Amino acid sequence: MRTFRRICIFCGSNKGTDPAFAEVARGVGEHLARSGIGVVYGGGKIGLMGEVADAALRAGGQVFGVIPQKLRDVEVGHDGLTELFVVDSMHARKMMMAQLSDAFVALPGGFGTLEELFEAITWMQLGYHRKPVGLVNAGGYYDHLLTFLDHGAAAGFVRPTHRPLMLSAPDIVALLEMMAVVEIPHFSLGHAPPRL
């Protein structure tokens, strides 16, 4: 069974139209902090990102932000974190977030959240890391995405052994339980890729 020191949270820099999304984000931050799990995230103080960070900090948790210099003003970099890393690119941001984390969790979000999520699971699929990846499917937000992944598997573009690796649960408690025990297969690429 895995234990987690820090978990990377991908989520929106907006709050969405349903106040329940912000409530879920606060619940995730608080639960991780009370469980002794540090939060790694995109470093902003607005949207769901800010809700997760502030809730974790209020609950006494450690929060590590990683933000590109170009986005520090746009996403309003959070200056009250345990540590805020300012990097020079989105690529550097995602690499550092991956290196700091033991698992990846996506909350509701838009293009950026989806891009980060799919990069994390692709890196796992290719053997660059063996860290669990999952969704908090708050209010069914990701229902259509999960259906599409099933469609991709049925159409032969997502391998049957890979489809179960995108974990999903309605809340963070259930998702962490799944992440602690999920079996991640070793993928043979003919050579060992660098680990994240």
Automatic annotation (TrEMBL):
<keyword id="KW-0203">Cytokinin biosynthesis</keyword>
<comment type="similarity">
    <text>Belongs to the LOG family.</text>
</comment>
<dbReference type="InterPro" id="IPR005269">
    <property type="entry name" value="LOG"/>
</dbReference>
<keyword id="KW-0378">Hydrolase</keyword>
<dbReference type="Pfam" id="PF03641">
    <property type="entry name" value="Lysine_decarbox"/>
</dbReference>
<protein>
    <recommendedName>
        <fullName>Cytokinin riboside 5'-monophosphate phosphoribohydrolase</fullName>
        <ecNumber>3.2.2.n1</ecNumber>
    </recommendedName>
</protein>
<dbReference type="InterPro" id="IPR031100">
    <property type="entry name" value="LOG_fam"/>
</dbReference>
